[in-house]
Amino acid sequence: MTSQSGPDPIVLTLFANRFMSVAEAMGRSLRQTSISTNIKERLDFSCALFAPDGDLVANAPFIPIHLGSMSFAVKYQMQRHGKTLKDGDVLMTNSPHAGGSSVTAVPISSAHVLKPPHSHLPDITIITPVFDTTTHEILFFTASRGHHADIGGILPGSMPPTSVSIFEEGAEIDSFKIVDGGVFDQKGLYEYMIEKPARYPGSSGCRNIRDVESDLKAQIAANYKGVQLLRAMVEEYGLKTVQENMYHIRANAENSVRNLLVDVAKRAGSNVLTAVDYLDDGTPIQLRVEIDEKRRSAMLDFEGTGCEVRGNLNAPISVVHSAVIYCMRAMLDVEIPLNAGCLVPLDVRIPKNSVLSPSRTAAVCGGNVLTSQRIVDVVLKAFHACAASQGCTNNLTFGTGGKNGDGVAVAGWGYYETIAGGSGAGCGWHGTSGVHTHITNTRIGDVEILERRYPVLVHRFGLRPGSGGDGEWRGGDGVVREIEVTHPLQVSILSERRTRAPYGMEGGGAGVMGRNTWIKQRR
Question: Potential cystine with 149: which of 285, 360, 416, 423 (Cβ 3.0-4.6 Å)?
Answer without folding.
Answer: 416
